[in-house]
């Protein structure tokens, strides 16, 4: 069932290659392609998260001042049921990790990056 547009939480990620980003999020992280109206832009959906993938020619990327361009330490946070299984699955698929597993009082996490370097945190909460 589709989530009504007003029920989505949207996050914009600037990407270098829109098709590569679509492939990464749909193949590895369970997102579904929502729209891809132009080569410069697409959006993918996972639950109530609408991830806007803005290529260099998109209006979202052009509106970003040069001194603020590029990936930072901000990231989307995806909850997984079995972090070790996700790590094995993604490693087998050739996905590069940006951190080791970090454990804290709330759970365990690891960072990966999309093809443009935007960070994704995979998090398994304490049972």
Automatic annotation (TrEMBL):
Alphabetical list of Pfam families matching this protein: Glyoxalase
Q: Say which domain of life the source belongs to.
A: Bacteria
- The residue range of the signal peptide is none
Where is the VOC domain positioned along the sequence? Answer: 5-125
Xref: PANTHER family: GB|AAF24581.1 (PTHR33993:SF14), GLYOXALASE-RELATED (PTHR33993)
**Name of the protein this chain belongs to:** VOC domain-containing protein
Traced from the root, the source organism's taxonomic lineage reads:
Bacteria, Bacillati, Actinomycetota, Actinomycetes, Mycobacteriales
């Amino acid at each position: 069932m589709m989530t009504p547009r007003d029920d989505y939480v949207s996050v914009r990620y600037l990407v270098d290659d829109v098709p590569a980003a679509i492939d990464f999020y749909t193949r590895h992280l369970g997102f579904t392609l929502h729209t891809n109206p132009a080569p410069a832009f697409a959006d993918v959906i996972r639950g109530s998260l609408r991830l806007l993938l803005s290529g260099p020619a998109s209006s979202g990327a052009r509106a970003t001042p040069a001194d603020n361009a590029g990936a930072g330490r901000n990231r989307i946070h995806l909850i997984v049921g079995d972090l070790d299984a996700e790590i094995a699955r993604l490693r087998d698929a050739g996905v590069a990790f940006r951190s080791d597993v970090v454990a804290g009082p709330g759970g365990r996490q690891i960072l990966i990056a999309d093809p443009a370097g935007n960070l994704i945190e995979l998090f398994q909460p304490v049972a």
